[in-house]
Design a protein that fits this description.
- By secondary structure, this protein is of the alpha+beta class.
- The protein has a single domain, classed as Rossmann fold (3-Layer(aba) Sandwich), CATH 3.40.50.
- Helices cover 33% and strands 25% of the residues.
- The chain contains four helices and eight strands, in the order H-E-E-E-E-H-E-E-H-E-E-H.
- Strands 1, 2, 3, 4, 5, 6, 7 and 8 form an eight-stranded mixed beta sheet that branches.
- Helix 2 runs parallel beside helix 4.
- The longest helix has 25 residues.
């Protein structure tokens, strides 16, 4: 008995997807989170990895958020090639943060400092600063052979701080770490790290939306 054509097509599609692999980015525990302004991220949150908030911080009162470029400060960068790769990747996190914060609808203006200068005005504003404290390309060869077992993962961690522009006070700090892996063909380093950056940006936006509704950071 011959297998129907539709069934054979479905099987072929499944096999092709399995061979290509399914890329994923997953959250992981932050490594040595950074303190800023007397705050250390130490509260586990359902969105970002770890967070700490200054008393009285109310994100809903702010109309503007200014997103600065995040330098890569990972001390494990081994050579000039790694440093060039880091310099290429750093702006991508800023772009993802700007996109996700715009999509959140929380702010009237989201300023990308790589594209425009910001002059403080009368409106309450936040400044988003930080650093990419972990940036690992992993091993495409290891990902190719290990597949779904997780060897050779790319990794990224961002330590961020929100600053009240008018006072210069740090009102919130976060630390968020993501790992990205792919199936049989290993996956491109840039694509995998961009997935991690998107996860970091989306997580921050989700936390701020929750806080705008009166929720506190935490599980």
């Amino acid at each position: 008995m011959r297998t129907p054509l539709a069934v054979r097509i479905r099987v072929a599609v499944v096999l092709l997807l399995a061979m290509a692999g399914c890329s994923t980015a997953i959250q992981s525990d932050p490594d040595n989170p950074m303190s800023a302004g007397g705050l250390t991220p130490n509260v586990k949150d359902q969105n970002v990895g770890l967070v700490a908030m200054a008393p009285g911080f109310d994100v809903s009162k702010y109309k503007v958020i200014v997103v600065e470029k995040f330098p890569v400060t990972d001390r494990e960068l081994k050579d000039e090639g790694d440093r060039r790769f880091a310099a290429k990747m750093a702006p991508k996190l800023q772009l993802e943060l700007v996109r996700r914060l715009k999509d959140s609808g929380l702010f009237q203006r989201v300023v990308n400092t790589s594209e425009a200068q910001y002059q403080p005005g009368a409106e309450p504003a936040l400044r988003l600063q930080g650093a990419i404290t972990r940036l690992g390309r992993g091993s495409q060869v290891a990902r190719y052979f290990a597949g779904i077992y997780g060897i050779g993962r790319a990794r990224a961690q961002a330590d961020m701080r929100l600053i009240d522009v008018s006072s210069g006070r740090v009102v919130m700090v976060t630390a968020d770490r993501w790992l990205a892996n792919v199936g049989w063909f290993g996956g491109d380093d840039e694509d995998l790290l961009e997935q991690s950056f998107d996860g970091i940006a989306e997580s921050l936006a989700k936390l701020l939306v929750r806080m705008s509704k009166g929720e506190k950071p935490g599980k």
